[in-house]
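[job 0412] stage=complex_fold ligand=zinc ion status=START
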Amino acid sequence: MKPAVVLRCPICDAVRALGGRRNEYSKQKLSSQAETHLRGHDLDEPKVAIRKYGIVSDATEIVVPSESHRRLPTKEWTGRDDTWLPDGALSGGERSQSASTSSVEVSSL
Ligand SMILES: [Zn+2]
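[job 0412] stage=complex_fold status=DONE, emitting structure tokens
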């Protein structure tokens, strides 16, 4: 079993995994990971700061079997639906879900 830290972007729902335990990463390190991604969202500085804080405070430590570890999106930010995460890896966001965009659109074709 191997530990990893999962970050999630509240804007586009992309996820990023970092190998290791959460306490191995300073807040600054996690912030810079978040910021790198947020730069792609064309936000102004205050919004980047707010989102960055949210991503860091929602960072979740998970432990996965070694053979599953390489399936995690450890190299880059990846769309939530395009990668694998264990069940319950992102259960921390109950607080402010209604504040985010209405990304749940069911198209019944
Ligand atoms: Zn994003």
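The CA atoms of residues 7 and 59 lie 5 Å apart.
[job 0412] exit 0
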